[in-house]
TrEMBL record:
Domain NADP-dependent oxidoreductase: 16-314
UniProt key word Magnesium: no
Any GO MF annotation of the entry: oxidoreductase activity
Record has Oxidoreductase as a keyword: yes
Lineage: Bacteria, Bacillati, Actinomycetota, Actinomycetes, Nakamurellales
Family: Belongs to the shaker potassium channel beta subunit family.
Gene3D superfamilies given in the database record: NADP-dependent oxidoreductase domain (3.20.20.100)
UniProt keyword terms in alphabetical order: NADP, Oxidoreductase
Name of the molecule in the record: Predicted oxidoreductase
InterPro entries: AKR, K_chnl_volt-dep_bsu_KCNAB-rel, NAD(P)_OxRdtase_dom_sf, NADP_OxRdtase_dom
GO cellular component, one term: cytosol
C-alpha cells in the first residue's frame, strides 16, 4: 500500500481509501460489510471514509462496529456533515453551528470513537454564512473531536474562501472530496490548481465512474442483474449520465490498454486518478470482500505518458471537463 500526505499537513493516508457510500447499511448485509472492512485492513488500507447521511447514520454505525477492537491510532477515519439526517427536521441539515455541533456528536457515537481524523463539509451551504460554518468547524477541532477539516464538491472560489477563514481561525483545511475519473474531469481546470496553491489534496470519489469503467456495461446489451445501474435506491440515478452507447463503446476501447499492463479495467481506472499528483487517495467501495483486494493492486502503479495519451485517445469527446458542472450538480438551496 502506498501512503500519501493529505494536503499541506503531516497526516498520511492510504492511497486506496475504503468508502462505504451506497453499501453499508443499505445495499449489503452487515456481515458482508464486516468482511469487506476486514479485507480492507488485511490489504493495508488504513483510511476509511463515510458520512452521517449514508443510510441515515447506519453506514457510520456499521463501520464503527467493524473497526471496533482495532488500534485507533493506526487508522484514519473520515466523515461528513451537510445533508438531512435523523428525523430530517428544519435544523437537521446544512452547515449551521447548531447542525455541525450536534452532527459531530452523533457521528462519534455511531463510529464508536472519540475523534475523527477528518471532518468534511459534504456540500457548500448557500444558506449559512461561511464565517459561521468555519467557526463551528474550528470549535469541533478545538474540542478535539476532529483533527483536520475538509470539504466535498466545493468550487475553487468556495475552497479559497473557506481556506482563508480556516487559516484565520488557526485550523487546517487540507482536503477536497470531488467526483473524479477518466470520464469526469471537471476539477482539473480550476479546483486542482486552486488546491495546489492552497496546500489541499483531493480524496476522489467514484474513480471507476460508479462501475462504468470496469467495462461490465456493454453498449446495446441488457444491464447485468444486481448491478448499480439497476439499483433503485440511488445507484441507478447516479450512473445514468454515463449509460449511453457512445460512452460505453468508448469505455470498451480501454480494455486492450488495461490488458497490455496486466491490469483489470477497474485497476486501470483507479491507477489513472492516482497518477494526478494532487490526488491523495481514491475512494473505493465494495459489495464483496474480494473486490477490495483487486482494487488495492492499483496502488503504486505508474502510468507512462504514452499510456495516458492512449486513454485520452480512446475516450475522446465523451469526457466531461466543464468546471461549471461542480456548480450545476450542487444544491442551490438546502435540501429538505
Amino acid at each position: 500500500m502506498e501512503f500519501r500526505y493529505l494536503g499541506n499537513s503531516g497526516l498520511k493516508i492510504s492511497a486506496i481509501t475504503y468508502g462505504n457510500w451506497l453499501t453499508h447499511g443499505s445495499q449489503v448485509e452487515n456481515d458482508i460489510a464486516n468482511q469487506c472492512v476486514r479485507a480492507a485492513l488485511d490489504s493495508g488500507i488504513t483510511s476509511f471514509d463515510t458520512a452521517d447521511v449514508y443510510a441515515n447514520g447506519a453506514a457510520e454505525s456499521v463501520l464503527g462496529a467493524a473497526l471496533k477492537g482495532e488500534r485507533r491510532e493506526s487508522l484514519e477515519i473520515f466523515t461528513k456533515v451537510y445533508w438531512p439526517t435523523g428525523p430530517k427536521g428544519h435544523n437537521d441539515v446544512g452547515l449551521s453551528r447548531k447542525h455541525i455541533a450536534e452532527s459531530i456528536n452523533g457521528s462519534l457515537t455511531r463510529l464508536q470513537t472519540d475523534y475523527v481524523d477528518l471532518y468534511q463539509a459534504h456540500r457548500f451551504d448557500t444558506e449559512t454564512p461561511l464565517e459561521e460554518t468555519m467557526q463551528a468547524f474550528a470549535q469541533v477541532v478545538r474540542q478535539g473531536k476532529a483533527l483536520y477539516i475538509g470539504v466535498s464538491e466545493w468550487t475553487a472560489d468556495q475552497l479559497r474562501a473557506g481556506h482563508a477563514l480556516a487559516a484565520e481561525l488557526g485550523i487546517q483545511l487540507i482536503s477536497s472530496q470531488p467526483q473524479y475519473s477518466m470520464l469526469w474531469r471537471v476539477i482539473e481546470d480550476e479546483v486542482v490548481p486552486a488546491s495546489r496553491e492552497l496546500g489541499v489534496s483531493q480524496i476522489v470519489w467514484s474513480p471507476i465512474a460508479q462501475g462504468v469503467l470496469t467495462g461490465k456495461y456493454k453498449p446495446g446489451q441488457p444491464l447485468p442483474a444486481g448491478s448499480r445501474a439497476t439499483d433503485a435506491k440511488g445507484g441507478a440515478d447516479m450512473i445514468k449520465r454515463f449509460m449511453t452507447d457512445d460512452v460505453l463503446t468508448r469505455v470498451q476501447a480501454l480494455a486492450p490498454i488495461a490488458a497490455d499492463l496486466d491490469l483489470t479495467m477497474a485497476q486501470l481506472a483507479v491507477a489513472w486518478v492516482l497518477s494526478n499528483d494532487n490526488v491523495a487517495a481514491a475512494l473505493v467501495g465494495a459489495s464483496r470482500p474480494e473486490q477490495v483486494g483487486e482494487n488495492v493492486k492499483a496502488s503504486g502503479v505508474t502510468l507512462s505518458p504514452d499510456v495516458l495519451g492512449r486513454i485520452d485517445e480512446a475516450l475522446g469527446d465523451v469526457v466531461v471537463r466543464d468546471p461549471g458542472m461542480t456548480t450545476v450538480t450542487a444544491p442551490q438551496v438546502r435540501p429538505v
